[in-house]
Amino acid sequence: MPYTDDDEERLNYLEQFTAGEPNSIVHSYSYLEGTVVYQSVLRELDERYGDNEIIASSFINKALNWPPVRPNDDKCWMSWRYFCLSMKMLCVVLYL
User: Distance between CA atoms of 90 and 96, rounded to whole angstroms?
Assistant: First the structure.
């Protein structure tokens, strides 16, 4: 993401690069104006997703519910591989 000091641009980036429930949270603030909007969105996201145990639990549940990977399904293996890499990075971020 390009560096910017403009909170309105930051809010636009958040809206573009989030999906699902986080995007709904960001979008719910997008009609407001003012300098406190971006900080309010960050606070809301942190309250909902900033708890390390919730984040780790979400990854564990996703791993436990991952569909079976067939031996010749390269696409599925690659998805599993990328998911495992993201779990590895999550461990680094949360516990170091």
Answer: 10
- Can you tell me the distance from the alpha carbon of 66 to that of 75, in angstroms, rounded to the nearest whole number? 14
What's the CA gap between 34 and 89, in Å, rounded? 35
Whole-structure pTM value: 0.54
**In the structure, how many helices (H) and strands (E) does the chain have?**
5, 0
Would you say 37 and 7 are in contact if contact means Cβ atoms under 8 Å apart? yes
The predicted-structure confidence for 27-75, as pLDDT tens digits, reads as follows 898 888 767 888 898 888 888 888 878 777 888 888 899 999 999 999 9
For the chain, domain boundaries: 7-49, 52-95
Contacts of 33 (CB under 8 A, 6+ apart): none
| Confidence at 2, pLDDT banded by 50, 70, 90 | low
Residue 11's CB is within 10 A of a number of other CB atoms, namely 21
